[in-house]
């Protein structure tokens, strides 16, 4: 909470690109993963931009990045961790409270 009593929004998630990534991953079941190229395609982001934002989310332990091979082809898989899912839930609740407090809904 801020001094004004308004909820604070998680700065790791709040950046527009990271919010989009988190929303996309939260749409998956908790054990599901998505390939990096598929996530890049869904979000219409460059590989470099997506990598940068995933690194921030990974540093916060909100996403897990797994490098694997499928038929000798390297593949990068991304999933939202339990901590990331909880942080996203807290973020959405804080956003709702913020909007309610300011008459936004």
UniProtKB/TrEMBL annotation:
UniProt organism field: Amycolatopsis saalfeldensis
Single GO term (MF): DNA binding
InterPro entries from the UniProt entry: WH-like_DNA-bd_sf (IPR036388), WH_DNA-bd_dom (IPR027395), WH_DNA-bd_sf (IPR036390)
Name by which UniProt lists this protein: Winged helix DNA-binding domain-containing protein
Keywords, ordered alphabetically: DNA-binding
Transmembrane annotation, as ranges: none
Keyword DNA-binding: yes
Segments forming domain Winged helix DNA-binding: 24-99
Signal peptide range in chain numbering: none
Keyword DNA-binding among UniProt keywords: yes
